[in-house]
Design goal:
By secondary structure, the protein is α/β, with parallel strands linked by helices. The chain contains 17 helices and 15 strands. Helix 6 links the parallel strand 7 and strand 8. Helix 1 packs across helix 17.
């Protein structure tokens, strides 16, 4: 199958958020499974090497980290469909490494290369509509070639590339040419819908998707909601977990799109993101004291637990029940549930310890520091973002607390499982799909969960985990289940292959 992955960012070229990781690992995993996959993305200025004051040094530095080949010079991207006087002139370049997906870059000096950042400009709607139009125009030139490349599937991601869908399906310039191509949309986060923000827009001004998409440089373009329009016109839509696909049909989670999603629910699926098992690999991870795998983990995890207690200045107690929290200190992450029930838990169970890694809300920071003052031998804090510390927590903590109010994907749960820290989660989004409650009689499952948004529900789940922890045979079985869980990108890619085939059959 020939698949074009259209995205606003892709690692290692440009990486701002989680989208860049998905845009790298999913296409490359599909390639390994035998699909012909290409990526299309803007060429941002951040890709260029830094300038130097030293001329000789500058010549060395300016040798691109990623050599680019000119694929199409002087690509004309129409501002208006029927008027070429105001066309924007772009180039399409490519980078290809043996064994990796070929990536195409849309080059435009004004909208991409002269910008210091990838996102966050008032004209982002113009910049990413340009990406969508540029992609379609480039594909049309490819189709004209004798040996040109043409996709079976175009896979768009988030609002940035959602413009492409309506253009290809509805525009007189494109719809006939692209009639044989199936176009799907993955929404990684429904909060971000473009420059349009439904929360701050009068009801009468809200885009219903019925008006024609405005021209590229029209000053009213920011009033249109590209994500809504992508959802309306895509052959199929996915989000990052099966549970979240159901959640977004409700007003609570749908971010103003629940009605339109409800009309298209038969075309909506949820597929979990994968984990980079090479980077997150306790057998090779040099950031942890003792490395291990699923065959040999007991003594190594005990060593890492002792190291973690030392780092956080907690008493060295091998048999303590050591809990970890890694993430933003925010209500969305359920940090308030943790701080609310901690005094009761730690008073009743002096053998329980907690380490917290993360930055965020000042009120939550203050509350945690107050609790640490009251329970200095049971609470350790590292209240700032840290790239290395989370893995030390995953490798040494007995459990990881994830009491999120909502969590579309749940990547931290995957990281925790990979290192053998048993997740305790609230049943929402991806956490619900990742974690199966441990069943002692069957010795099945990989964690503990609760549903209610209350501190006592979290408390109950922790006590269930503690009870299992006291039975070392069962606990070791549970940890082994965690370590043996398969959430690799190869596994995820197979799910996407099934979805693509289904879309081609049903649409």
């Amino acid at each position: 199958m020939r698949i074009l992955f259209v995205t606003a960012e892709v690692g290692p070229f440009v990486s701002v958020g989680g989208l860049s990781q998905v845009s790298y690992f999913l296409p490359n995993s599909l390639l390994k499974l035998g699909d012909d996959v290409r990526i299309f993305t803007p060429k941002f200025g951040a890709m260029d090497p830094p300038k130097s004051d030293n001329e000789a040094e500058d010549k060395t530095l300016n040798k691109s980290r990623w050599p680019l080949k000119m694929e199409l010079e002087g690509l004309r991207v129409p501002v208006k469909i029927d008027n070429d006087k105001d066309d924007l002139i772009c180039n399409v370049k490519s980078h290809e490494t043996k064994g990796r997906v070929k990536t195409y870059f849309l080059e435009n000096r004004e909208y991409y290369e002269l910008r210091a950042n990838v996102f966050g400009y008032r004209d982002d709607h113009i910049r990413f509509l340009l990406m969508s139009k540029g992609c379609l125009e480039w594909l049309m030139r490819e189709k004209e070639k004798v040996n040109g490349w043409w996709p079976d599937i175009i896979h768009c991601n988030d609002w940035h590339s959602a413009y492409l869908i309506e253009l290809a399906k509805k525009s007189p310039r494109y719809k006939k040419i692209f009639s044989d191509v199936k176009i799907v949309l993955t929404v990684h986060n429904f909060v971000y819908q473009g420059n349009f923000d439904y929360k701050y827009c009068n009801i009468e001004d809200r885009d219903d998707g019925k008006r024609a998409l405005l021209p590229l440089l029209d000053p009213r373009m920011h009033t249109q909601n590209p994500l809504l329009r992508g959802i309306l016109h895509a052959d199929a839509i996915s989000t990052v977990s099966a549970t979240h696909a159901k959640e977004v049909l409700t007003k609570e989670y749908g971010e103003g799109l629940h009605t339109v999603l409800g009309k298209r629910k038969s075309r909506l699926v949820g597929i979990l993101n994968g984990l980079d098992t090479n980077t997150f690999n306790p057998k090779k991870d040099t950031t942890i004291k003792a490395r291990f795998d699923h065959n040999n983990y007991k003594s190594a995890r005990a060593t890492n637990k002792a190291v973690l207690q030392k780092i956080f200045k907690l008493p060295a107690k091998p048999h303590a029940f050591l809990m970890g929290y890694v993430g933003r200190l925010a209500q969305q992450k359920g940090i308030n549930l943790i701080t609310s029930m901690l005094p009761h838990l730690l008073t009743e169970y002096p053998n329980i310890q907690l380490v917290v890694v993360g930055g965020g809300d000042e009120a939550d920071r203050t509350k945690l520091m107050q609790l640490q003052s009251s329970y200095p031998t049971q609470i350790g804090l590292h209240l700032m973002p840290d790239f290395m510390m989370p893995r030390k927590v995953f490798a040494g903590a007995d459990v990881l607390l994830l009491p999120s109010m909502f969590e579309p994907g749940g990547i931290v749960a995957l990281e925790s499982l990979r290192y053998g820290a048993v997740p305790i989660v609230r049943r929402t989004g991806g956490l619900n799909d990742i974690i199966t409650d441990f069943e002692p009689t069957q010795e099945s499952g990989n964690g503990f969960s609760f549903s209610s948004k209350t501190d006592w529900a979290l408390y109950g789940a922790i006590i269930s985990a503690l009870t299992t922890f006291e039975n070392k045979r069962l606990w070791n079985r549970l940890v082994a289940n965690c370590l043996n869980a398969d959430f690799s990108w190869e596994h995820v890619a197979k799910e996407y292959q099934k979805w693509y085939r289904q879309v081609r059959i049903e649409s």
